[in-house]
Specification:
Structural class: mainly alpha
Helix content: 40-55%
Radius of gyration: 18 Å
Distance between the termini: 52 Å
Number of helices: 4
Length: 129
């Protein structure tokens, strides 16, 4: 129909895209975005890890703004994150809470904590390489 001039051509994309998630200090977000753009992991895994990294960024903004640059992290920084993660509840440092309403405020499950730790470990390992 558009080719015949009866209407405008459809826009590109499906309209299902949401705004890009943000998290924490600009420096941390830039590192997370660069990692996401250069990682060789599958798009789904990269997206999941980036989401977890942005959660770390929100924690950094609230608790340790001096650690926005990953090169500033030390063994003590990592221990502080692990301790904070161990005390975290569902809904802490997330950008959106849709679908969490009945679980907000409950302790994180061990598998969630493991996923968070794996994401940060992957990020630092890849940055080091």
């Amino acid at each position: 129909m558009a080719a015949l001039g009866y209407c405008d051509p459809p826009g590109s994309g499906t309209g299902r895209r949401t705004a890009k998630a943000a998290g924490g200090p600009e420096t941390w977000s830039q590192w997370a975005d660069r990692w996401h753009a250069t990682s060789t992991l599958t798009p789904r895994v990269r997206g999941s890890i980036r989401s977890n990294l942005l959660k770390v960024g929100r924690w950094l903004a609230a608790e340790h703004p001096d650690l926005a640059d990953p090169t500033a992290w030390t063994r003590q920084s990592c221990a502080a994150w692990i301790a904070a993660l161990d005390r975290m509840k569902v809904g802490d440092f997330v950008e959106r809470t849709a679908g969490l309403k009945d679980r907000i405020g409950k302790p994180l499950e061990a598998s969630t904590k493991a996923t968070q730790l794996t994401a940060l470990r992957t990020f630092f390992r890849d940055c080091q390489e």
